Amino acid sequence: MGWLDRWMGGGGGAPRATESDKPKNGSTERRSLGVAALFDGVKPSADHAVLDLGQAAEASLEVYGRYARRVRFADLLRDERRRMWSTALEDSVPAQPERPYDLILGWNVLDRLGPEAREPLVGRLADRSAPGARLHVLVDASDATMIRPYRFTVVDVDRVRYDPDGPEEMARPRLLPAEVERLLQPFEVVRAFTSQSGMREYVGIRR
Amino acid sequence: MWKKDEETTQATNPKMTDARGGSGSTTRASTGPARTATIGSSITIHGEVTGDEDLLIQGQVDGSVELKEHAVTIGGDGQVTASIHARVVTVEGRVDGDIEAQEQVILRSSSRVEGDITAPRVVLEDGARFRGGVDMGDPTKVPSREDTSSTSRSAKSRTESKTTSSSTSGSSSSSGSKSSSGSTKSKSSGDSSRSTSGTASAAAGS
Lengths: 207, 206
Known about the structure:
The structure holds two protein chains of two kinds.
Chain A: H1 3-7, E1 28-31, H2 33-39, E2 49-52, H3 58-64, E3 70-73, H4 85-92, E4 101-107, H5 109-112, H6 115-127, E5 129-140, E6 146-147, E7 150-156, E8 159-164, E9 169-170, H7 177-183, E10 187-194, E11 199-206
Parallel strand pairs in A: 2-3, 2-4, 4-5
Antiparallel strand pairs in A: 1-8, 5-11, 6-9, 7-8, 10-11
Chain B: E1 36-39, E2 43-50, E3 54-57, E4 60-74, E5 79-91, E6 94-96, E7 99-107, E8 112-114, E9 117-118, E10 121-124, E11 129-135, H1 145-165, E12 179-186, E13 199-200
Parallel strand pairs in B: 1-3, 2-4, 3-4, 4-5, 5-6, 5-7, 6-8, 7-9, 7-10, 8-11, 9-11
Antiparallel strand pairs in B: 2-12, 12-13
């Protein structure tokens, strides 16, 4: 029996993978302590607004819809290489005239963006959120020289699906925890977790 | 100049029964209470589209689409740069503009949408690309997933049954219930042989 069969729980005493853990077209689902911390204690409110810097997905929308009336999917990295950074930022994170964001899911944009774009992005997020707003970001903490871009879907308040999104890329220099905290200066990092996959999750609260 | 008299109905024309309106004509169903108008793939409309029946857009619309009591489908070939206001909006093509639906918005896997969506239910199929905001109403009153998916399924079957039963009109024509302010152009038929400008409107056909 091959490793895949064993992994899928096909025999012997191997732990049986749950349905949601089985990879589908290269995607995987993982428990996310960071996302759980982001939503922890948040009460549904018609006044809440969520900003997801990643791609839109129905499952994410369903989870966000439990807490908030307004959700914005910025799809920030779409066409990123073909657009001026300032234009991309304006297109993706425009002013939210009705209400500032309360929950922000930044995913791994800090890893994917060049150093010159990181601070303007965090500054924009701070401008568009109110004190007490919560921010979640992922940073690759592994030693890999190549990283695979993913798109992320929140499938439950503590589970995230990773879907491969394009070919592997050269990893940028690693962001160390102190550097991440400095970048996220407008937000106070209150929780941080490192997963077995080598991703480090940060949860910050807008000062 | 488009005139209502120009409208012809060919209920059975094997070449013109493409539910997606690939013929490049603007069509409508001729029988039954469920009518769907089609803006064919070679039609470009600049201005306001309003009416009193369902609409399938396979062409290009720049301006606004106001069919508050009806379903609007932007087909796979459709390109809309406009605000859309309808009861149900289904997107398979491309929309740059805001969408407001009284019941639900469905973004199919082939859709590309940039703009804000306001609807109590939003369906995002895998593969759909959407950038913008979603306003779903009060989260303490969100319908269950079962309600949402059953509504989605019924909306899909309703749209399919309507489009496949549509008859088509032969040459340049417009739905009897649709009015368009602005200009309408047929890209496939030369510069101006099928163009109208100004305002064209007609009462609801039956």
